[in-house]
Design brief:
Elements (H helix, E strand, L loop, with lengths): L1 E6 L3 H16 L3 E3 L7 E6 L4 H20 L4 E6 H5 L1 H7 L5 E3 L7 H10 L5 E3 L20 E5 L1 E2 L10 H5 L3 E2 L2 H13 L4 E5 L8 H4 L4 H11 L4 E4 L9 H9 L3 E6 L7 H6 L6 H14 L4 E8 L6 H14 L3 E6 L17 H24 L5 E10 L4 E6 L10 E5 L8 E10 L2 E8 L2
Parallel strand pairs: 1-2, 1-3, 3-4, 4-5, 5-6, 7-10, 10-11, 11-12, 12-13, 13-14, 17-19
Antiparallel strand pairs: 8-9, 15-16, 15-18, 16-17, 18-19
Helix pairs in contact: 7-9, 9-10, 13-14
Length: about 450
Amino acid sequence: MKIGFVSLGCPKNQLDAEVMLHELLEAGYEITADETKADIVIINTCGFIESAKRESIDAILDIAWLKKHNGLRGIIVTGCLSERYRESIFEEMPEVDAVLGVGSIHNIVDAVREIEKKKKCRYTSFLPNDEVALGGDRVLISPDYSAYIKIAEGCDNRCAYCAIPAIRGKFRSRTVEDIVAEAKQLEALGVRELNVVAQDTTRYGLDLYGEYSLAKLLRAITDATSIPWVRLLYCYPDKITDELVAEIRDNERIVKYIDLPIQHISDRMLRAMNRHGDSAMIKDVIGKLRREIPDIVIRTTLIVGFPGETEEDFEELCEFANEARFEHLGVFTYSREEDTPAYDFEDQIDEQVKNDRMDIIMRRQLEINEEKNRAMIGKTVRVLCEDYDPVGEIHFGRSAADAPEIDGKVYFKAEHRIAPGSFVDVKIRKVLDYDLVGFAKLRS
């Protein structure tokens, strides 16, 4: 029995997929990357915002075509979309044979076996979303040299626009010992970049240890392993402690990079979004990071078009983004999601206005990125080689300033072929939009 797998959404969802893949392999199933050769296909969906839901539905319909025309025996839908719309998936998509919620990833083998036994099956499993066992053995979907590690599940922040608490449950931290053991396993597999993720990484440990414990966890990981790069994603500005700032600054293996979603800078909008902290706090945190860690790279995300956002609110956001000059910035248009407080807010913004506002900020951000990248010309940066493009006859990889999948690349020529996962020194010669181009020599 061959199992195909389609995993969508964020790295946290990818980690769930990796756990399910391991359990299927342990049960004796064969995994295939070619859905046309699969007997059963599992689609691990995202259901966070409207665009992600559309992508997930399109993926299910694409696989449904294989069931009708290519002899596929079964379709299993897992992940956030199935958790959120459990009642309607079977009704709207009769091709689906099994639906598992996010609390039921460890029931994946049971779902496959039920489909094996019957031609027609309606298997469901929706265990409480905040009781799923954290961690677990995985099969890496990412390249061997770079991996994510999930340190907690769920979220307690209750932002007005966000459905994640309803989908993923309350915030639950893994123990330091459990995380460190997994980090050591990943190092043994050849991982050289460890990307730390959770819905809110900076809340880590509050539920277990009674205090924010991310800095202690980072020290434990770097003490127990020799992984060269440890990167922080999904940090909240209201939980950036002095201890954490010092750990990033002083620990040479914590890359000087932080993903710090702020969403807005207008105090009126921050209150409406139910974000923790105000504009003064956000500016103070960014200023502290810049002062204490002069070479830090800050990535952030913004939301435009939230209900009630005025031109004045938007102009304040534009001015702040222009002044802060983030190294990386992404903009989402507000997605009106049912079962969130903001769904019923008055003064919903027209979609065209949202898109126009997003374009305005992103056009300016492109200019900021080009200016910052041009300042890199002539400098030498350390790059983690990802692969070689035989068509362009050029290698590519990422510097410490670039997180996997979301940030820019460094393209480089070399005197000989560089193996993926190797670190190289690249002298930057030119800029290509968000990317850098240079020449490398092998580094140990």
